[in-house]
Write a structure and sequence with these properties.
By secondary structure, this protein is mainly β. It has four helices and 24 strands. Strand 23 and strand 24 form a beta hairpin. The longest helix has 15 residues. The protein starts with 21 loop residues before the first strand and ends with a helix.
Length: 355
């Protein structure tokens, strides 16, 4: 018998899986998006600084609901929310790359508890998991994903396995390939790991697969084909709960998979911030000069004259008789009212201020 908490939306599809053109592109810093037929795979380089983030609504008390894995004896319930509501949570997030559905839950309740543990170092415990280890699927079929600063692990979920971990992100799910309906065509969400490093026993690459009307075994084989370890694939909630929204670096959103079902938990994929360019001293000096042109009428841009640079000394002259000068000690001087004046400001400080 299925536990009432574990819900799988089943959609039958007659015929074979339609093959599509495989298209891969690096959409964000450290993230590659692959479109393979009806499956979208996000390949995430965890060493790049990309990360996952749990999204939930306002927690509410869940009387009579036990927490089987978390630090508290009673679990927490969360309101079900629409895909659009979770999208709005990321409105001010500059590094958003993707948004997927998350944990299993009880369809019959609202608010509802989450079946298995969910943890974030930003939110502390989200849920300790309200699904007993003694109900189907049994504890042996449950996995725990732990993401650290530069890698991740995926292993069995044990009742005492959450104590003492340094992971900043934890998420539990099911062993992929053991679903009793695994040969059915339905929407799928899976998370997998690849690129194992023996030095710290962690994986550097995380895969997220979102599929429309695909069989579980086909999704597993696709992940393996792109580099995931076959024994490191975790099944998340699927069926009618599945959704996927993606963003380009410019912020343009595409709802790749939409759902009308409301769910209590979603996962955001956040790219690493774009690296700050390293500027040369020449670029810094010109930036300071241009900033002062904008802030002081004494140095008008339309009166800009010769610019000279010699042995680390930078000078900008203006046709109205004024000038700006940066010496070898990175001190800024300006020529105004027929005299040179030292601002007593170091160039590095001045650049940070004017930027």
């Amino acid at each position: 018998m299925h536990s009432p908490v574990i819900t799988f939306g089943i959609i039958a599809l007659v015929g074979h899986l339609a093959l599509g053109v495989i298209h891969a592109q690096s959409v964000h810093q450290g993230i590659t998006q692959i479109q393979d037929g009806r499956m979208t795979i996000h390949k995430i380089d965890l060493s790049s600084g990309a990360e996952l983030r749990h999204l939930v609504g306002t927690p509410q008390a869940s009387p009579g609901t036990r927490s089987y894995y978390g630090p508290n004896s009673r679990d927490t319930a969360y309101p079900k929310r629409s895909q659009t509501s979770f999208i709005n949570d990321l409105a001010d997030e500059p590094c958003k790359a993707a948004l997927i559905n998350g944990q299993f839950f009880d369809l019959s309740k609202n608010p509802t508890c989450l079946a298995f543990p969910v943890y974030s170092d930003r939110l502390r415990w989200v849920s300790g998991g309200c699904e007993s280890p003694n109900t189907w699927p049994y504890e042996a079929d449950r996995l725990l994903l732990e993401i650290h600063d530069r890698g991740a692990t995926l292993g069995r979920l044990y009742n005492d396995g959450l104590v003492g971990s340094s992971a900043k992100f934890r998420l539990a799910g099911l062993v992929a390939g053991k679903n009793l309906k695994g040969s059915w065509y339905q929407n799928q969400t899976m998370i997998a790991l690849g690129d194992y490093h023996s030095r710290d026993s962690r994986y550097r690459t995380l895969y997220i697969l979102s599929g429309r009307y695909v069989r579980e075994r086909d999704a597993i084989n696709t992940l393996v084909r792109y580099g995931a370890a076959r024994d490191k694939i975790m099944l998340m909630d699927g069926g009618g709960s599945t959704f996927l929204s993606t963003w380009t670096p410019s912020g343009q959103r595409t709802d790749n998979i939409r759902t009308s079902r409301q769910i209590p938990h979603a996962i955001a994929v956040l790219a690493a911030p774009e690296p700050t360019p390293i500027l040369t001293d020449t670029q810094k000096a010109k930036h300071v000069f241009r900033t002062l042109e904008q802030r002081s009428s004494a140095f008008p841009a339309n009166q800009r004259g010769t610019y000279t640079e010699t042995s680390g000394i930078f000078q900008q002259r203006y046709h109205n008789g004024t000038a700006l000068y940066i010496d070898r000690q990175r001190m800024l001087w300006y020529f105004f009212n027929r005299r040179w004046t030292n601002t007593n400001r170091n160039l590095d400080w001045w650049y940070a201020w004017s930027n």
